[in-house]
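Fill in residues.
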């Protein structure tokens, strides 16, 4: 069984005027550098694409999901190889660099190297110029008709994750992104200290399993729904995104622009629908 990405620390606990000392478990946070090798004419180049702060685990899926949601790759066969670099690096030791060798003919727009020098675990991929940029990149276009999900299915999603979020169970400090089918059956769950990383890991799994586009699936987010998460959902062809927390204004704009049903505050037997309620059957 894979070792859980948790770290033990000593803490001083203060409660009701009493002081005690104990060991506490925290979600591990480490940098991951994503390096790509690609072709320009007859020359092969290797460059750092991004450094993201993440919870170790499913790093290959994270890199694949990142490349896909950024529009660099469209299919798994556009990646010739993907591997961890075992040598020590400036990114915090062994295993914190992942090398992606893109197939000949897969180009990388230089703007990606200017924009992604560092990605924190809190903010995600910031600085998108406009929604038009996403529209131009979007790969996993959905052509299927409207599918419906009963409200009772949505209300049961959180309970379906009970016992599934292993790192959260130990630390209480990590995000989750889960994929369900229209009947509420769990298809995949990934955890990470970064909300955007959890979604990228999930998309990377979907890409590896040939599930894309995810047009008849539900994306469930353990926190709030921000713009960069809706952007990733749009790239993966998702049509229904649910979050435990609130959406941002730009997330709603993105959902409206890409015909995504966006549900927020999905907890305690209630939820709000912020866009395209046609997919939710309430009665």
């Amino acid at each position: 069984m894979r070792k859980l990405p948790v770290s033990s620390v000593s803490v001083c606990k203060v409660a009701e005027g009493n002081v005690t000392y104990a060991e506490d478990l925290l979600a591990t946070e480490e940098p991951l550098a994503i390096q790509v090798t690609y072709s320009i004419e007859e020359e092969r180049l290797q460059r750092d694409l991004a450094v993201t702060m993440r919870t170790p685990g499913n790093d290959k899926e994270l890199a694949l999901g990142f490349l896909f949601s950024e529009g660099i790759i469209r299919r798994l066969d556009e990646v010739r190889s993907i591997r961890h670099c075992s040598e020590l690096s400036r990114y915090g030791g062994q295993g914190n660099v992942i090398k992606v060798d893109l197939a000949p003919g897969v180009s990388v727009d230089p703007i990606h190297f200017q924009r992604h020098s560092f990605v924190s675990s809190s903010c995600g991929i910031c600085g998108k110029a406009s929604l038009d940029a996403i529209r131009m990149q979007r790969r996993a276009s959905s052509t299927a008709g409207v599918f419906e999900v009963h409200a009772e299915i949505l209300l049961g999603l959180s309970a379906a994750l009970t016992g599934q979020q292993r790192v959260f169970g130990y630390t209480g400090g990590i995000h989750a992104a889960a994929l369900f089918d229209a009947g509420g059956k769990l298809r995949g769950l990934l955890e990470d200290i970064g909300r955007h990383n959890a979604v990228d890991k999930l998309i990377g799994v979907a890409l590896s399993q040939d599930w894309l586009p995810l047009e008849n699936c539900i994306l469930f987010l353990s926190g709030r729904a921000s713009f960069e998460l809706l952007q990733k959902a749009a790239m993966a062809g998702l049509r229904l995104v649910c979050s435990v927390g609130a959406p941002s204004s730009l997330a709603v704009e993105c959902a409206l622009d890409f015909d995504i049903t966006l549900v927020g505050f999905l907890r305690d037997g209630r939820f709000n629908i912020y866009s395209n309620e046609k997919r939710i059957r309430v009665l």
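The first helix runs from residue 59 to 69.
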